Amino acid sequence: MRNGWGKASISQLANVVTGKTPPTSDRSNYGSFLPFVSPADLGEFKYISSSEKYLSKKGSEKARILPVGTCLFTCIGSTIGKVGVSAIELTTNQQINAAIAKNGVCGEYLYYSLCDIAPKIKKLAGVQAVPIINKTEFENQILWIPLEIAEQKAIADLLSTWDEAIEKTQRLIQAKEKRFYALLSKLISDNGQLTTGKSDWKKVKLGAVCKVITSNVDKKTLQNETLVRLCNYMDVYKNFYITSAIDFMEASATTSEILKFHLKKDDVLLTKDSETPDDIANSACVIEDLGSVLCGYHLSILRPMQRIEGAYLNFALHTPRIRYEFSRQANGATRFGLTMQAYNMVEIPLPPLEEQKQIAETLSTAQQEIDLLKHLAEKYKTQKRGLMQKMLTGEWRIKPEILTKYKEA
Length: 409
Description:
Layout: E1 5-9, H1 10-13, E2 14-18, E3 30-37, E4 47-48, E5 53-55, H2 57-60, E6 71-74, E7 83-86, E8 91-92, E9 96-101, H3 107-125, H4 135-139, E10 142-146, H5 149-187, E11 202-205, H6 206-209, E12 210-214, E13 226-231, H7 233-237, E14 241-242, E15 249-253, H8 255-261, E16 268-271, E17 273-274, E18 283-286, E19 293-295, E20 299-304, H9 310-317, H10 320-329, E21 331-332, E22 336-337, H11 340-345, E23 347-350, H12 353-391, H13 400-408
Parallel strand pairs: 3-8, 4-7, 13-19, 14-18
Antiparallel strand pairs: 1-10, 2-9, 3-5, 6-7, 6-9, 11-23, 12-20, 13-15, 16-18, 16-20, 17-22, 21-22
Helix pairs in contact: 5-12, 5-13
């Protein structure tokens, strides 16, 4: 035991209950009386005060109503390990374990401890076909905790400072993204019609202005091939631009693959398959020379011809109408993909080259502001993770003079 600290299981620190779902066959169980929280409602912000679905008063009587300050932890599926705190009374479904702090335990401290061990629990649950951690396994997880509640509260308040900075930045990102997509729709028509008053705009098939190159480069490294770096699916899915700042994976490729799938500045990369049709055709633009970086599997290169700028094309591909067109062209059952015919069917609005450049510059400025804020948010998250590892194990301690004030309070 560290001085003034001890170890305890979650069940020793909190009463753990699993959510309940009122019968969905009776629609009168659902309404607008009380939030009915699912894993989809957790993850972005610390405090939970609303949900996608609500229960009626009748439905709430068949659920477990949780008090303010309850810690919520998703316990099944791909979302396992998402954590939140109830800001109001609410209910949850059975995919969430709720931990109600016992006397002598600070609920906020418990929340941060659960955030800290979430990766461990996720890894533990991931060894099964369907990731899951049952109530008993969850309750048996061991946490470090200060014996004095004053120290628990001091640590929780310190960590909450980083949460406030993260949430403020995330809300600013949301507001900037909302304005960005409004500007995108204004500058590039997203309803299939040419922009009013732009008689020199045209509608063209995507295949008429781009060379479409579908990659088949795998992630293997073979001795008889040349070492390369691969731009993969998630590199495109998570980024608006492809730059040298991305940590590309290493693999190998044949000479013919290097010649065919080598990325060039102004190329636009497109995710050509997905588990759902509405999540297909995410794009990112290569904005600098990248050396020996190849386009990886599950992606297509859209290489602009003389009539179109890559930066403009990337923005056009993000408009709702074109995203919808791609989803309509996707084929599949459990996984959806794009055929070569799909690229030739989708139409994009095409202004003169000079206007394309102006539109791309305007939208790039707005997008760069968002990227800077996202970078700042990630920096705050990294700092918070580092602090949690030190503060939640007693390795770093609260200064005595600060702790005294909490004791007095």
